[in-house]
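Researcher: Hi, I'm a grad student and pretty new to this. My advisor asked me to get structures for two proteins we've been looking at. I'm not sure of the right format, so I'll just paste the first sequence and hope you can take it from there.
Model: That works fine. Here's the first sequence with its structure tokens right after it:
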Amino acid sequence: MNEDKKTKKKNLQLINLETPETQSHFKSTTSTPIINESSLNTHKHLSDMSQKQSSKRQKRFSTEEEKIILEQLDNFNSVPPEEELNKIIVTLNELPNKSDIWDKNRIKTFWRNRQQTIKKKNKT
């Protein structure tokens, strides 16, 4: 009978199905933490998420040549038209040190960031 209780206790600890009634009993008789597959998976998932987040966003630095080409965007008060974006992409692709980061979305992001910088400089 005593061994049967120990087996039940171990089984409950392994699958972490403690009920409120048994939980207080286990707390008083056991001092080791309960580790189950679910908690390990959660930890692994959180670890994977942090790795994805750290590799997802990177600061990108524009070369001086790229900045000169992208200055054409300063003439636009709203998002530049598609034909202008295409011209800029072609020009950027003709550079000797061609970078793969420039596409329409990246150029639009650059333009938005540049507009914010210009507004801040004008305020001061």
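Researcher: Oh nice, that was easy. Here's the second one.
Model: And its structure:
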Amino acid sequence: MSTKNNAAPALSMSAMTKILVIVFTLNLIVEKIAQLSQAIGLAGTTDARAMLMLSFRLPHFWTGILVPVSYLVALWSASNLLRAYERARGFDLAVFQEMKTVGANLMYAGIAALFLVPTLESWINLGGRSFSVNFDINPVAIGMIGVILKLIGRRSAETSEQTQ
């Protein structure tokens, strides 16, 4: 006769995912500060205010943050999905709502990588107002997974609401 251990793990997957998001966010901040520090070092000052003012003059600094931040938001919402699943110990309406949120955030991340950032950078570089697209397989796959998760979450939530 075997006994199952139903005790929760010391650190849940949702908590570990949030810790990873925090670590990745700090890494992104350090990386962007290092980029600004190199530019500021050429100017001869290391003032934080000067770094901020320089960042406003470097639009690619900000467009380079859009996609990683959207991925981090999607990963944070995936952590919320895991937490809802851990609490429910299965699939319920809260899990389906979180699944829709994860799908939407992944979809937004894909849109940012495919359309938003290339278009903004084209406007900055070329001064035109044309629409640019970067058809790379990674953001296409991420965006499509987001669409699929959102549709599954929406349909499952509707079915769950009808049965209750």
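Researcher: Is there anything I should tell my advisor about the second?
Model: You could mention this: The helical segments are 13-43, 48-57, 59-88, 93-126, 137-163.
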